[in-house]
Amino acid sequence: RATNPEAWSDWKYQLLSDLYNKALTVLKRGLDNPIDIDKTIFKKKQHCIKKLTQGDFSYNQVNEIWDTFRKSYFIHYHESDILTHTAAIINQQDDSPLVLLYNDEKKQCSNIFVYTHNTDALFSQVCSGLDKMEVNILESRIIISKDNMSLFSFSILDNNLETFDNTYSIDKVCNNILSSIEEKTQAPKLQVKKQY
Hints:
Elements lengths: L9 H20 L7 H18 L4 H8 L4 H6 L2 H13 L6 E7 L4 E9 L4 H12 L2 E9 L4 E9 L9 H17 L13
Antiparallel strand pairs: 1-2, 2-4, 3-4
């Protein structure tokens, strides 16, 4: 699939570009001089907390959430994602599952973020909700917080390999995921669709 000229997309371009830039950074630094992860996380947090506290959020609100997140969250997510996720979690008024769909202009895809209490069948329930919409899942990440909250994210495109831009389709995707989570049934069996 990757060698097919028609299969080339902005998403694949961005993946290869990121790989190239990260490899170049490592080679320039040298293998004997690795990146200081704690320093990188600190800089990300400082940048994000500055932006969040310039808005409607307090330092304490942000840190109360971040204190439950593991290092891997801050390593794997871009600052723009951290800002979006944190603001959405703070704005969540109750204990119900949070499902957020937003577009990522850099990666040319739509992102889904799910934040809720972790359960054994949760990942398959979320995937079942996505399967009903027949979306193309490009990437997924699963992180479980220190207080057993699930932070799932999916990079997706619609059937036309485009982002979700209208309110109706965004609401429909989010509602399908919420319905699948709230069913709390046994883990559904997912059908694997092979594309060649």
